[in-house]
Structure formats: C-alpha cells, structure tokens
Design goal:
The relative contact order is 0.14. This protein is α/β, with parallel strands linked by helices. The chain has a single domain, classed as P-loop containing nucleotide triphosphate hydrolases (Rossmann fold, 3-Layer(aba) Sandwich). The protein has 6 helices and 5 strands. It is a lipid-anchor.
Amino acid sequence: SAILELEKTNILSRFTRNEFCLESKSTIGVEFATRTLQVEGKTVKAQIWDTAGQERYRAITSAHYRGAVGALMVYDITKRQTFDNVQRWLRELRDHADSNIVIMMAGNKSDLNHLRAVTEEDGQALAEREGLSFLETSALEATNIEKAFQTILTEIYHIISKKALAAQEAAASTAIPGQGTTINVTDTSGNTKRGCCST
C-alpha cells in the first residue's frame, strides 16, 4: 500500500539524512541510500534499499532480496492491515533471501498512540513467534530509528565476523607446506637398526 511506502521511505530518510517529509512519494521499484556509522568500533558503510510495497513491483523487489544481509519489515501501528500483511512479506522474504538474513520488525508511528490499531504486545508476540527482533519507531519524532538500524547492523556485523574468522581458521588448517608452515620431522623410534652381520 502507498501508506506503508511512506513509512519505509521516511524511516530511511530519517536514518540516512535525518529528514522527515510529510508528503513523501511512494517508492517506484527500488531506491537506496547509504550511511557510514560505527559498529563496535569498526566503520561500517550500510547500503539500504527501500523496496516498493505495491503488487506491481513485486518481481523487481523480490530480485533485490537475494544478496541482502538484513531486512527491516515495517508496519503502521495505526493501520491494522499493514500489520496483517507482515507475515506475507516475511514469507516472500524468506523464500528469496539468504537463510542467514537478519530480520527486524518495526511498528512505525509510535507518536500516534491515540490512533493505535495494533498493540505493542501484538507486535512483540508476532516477532517472538517468527524469531525476529522488534521495536516500535517514529520517523516523525526520530524515536528508535537509530536503535533499529544499529541493532540490525550489529547482528549482521557479528555474523559476517564469525564467517570471516571461520574462513581464516579453515584456511590455516589446510595450509600447504611452503606457505609459512613449519613441519618438524623427528625420528621417534628411539633405536637405530644395525646391519644383520654386525659384530
């Protein structure tokens, strides 16, 4: 829906440019922005894709799931239908993305509590059932936007660091001589053979 489009677009512009626009246009196909930030003392450049939510762009957006290392699934807490659609989007994401993808669910517009159609408990319960991280956010007030992206990026950083470490260990254990590996050859038998005819 176009409403959900504005949620994602405003979250992205708040995180990458610290901007909020009440009259954002719906995403056409796929748009992206980047931001460089610190994750556990390391500089990380995040490339964040804003995929269109409308049905007619589905083929384009599902192609962008491949190779993605993280996803933020956004619904509008004032529109129940956007929450009800989360599981469909989640299925699609899991069908097309890498099995190790880090997924977080965000209920946006927490500043409009008086218009709430989805309780925070409902959001938390769905996230727990699906094994997702969860936060309520407000792009308007910049509430939890930074925290949501930091959470996802930290988890991604841990996964990538573990993979890199495992690859280094695997490479070290299969190293061939002549590549800095020393092999000591010693005679462990302890006795020297004598010729058969010795006196």
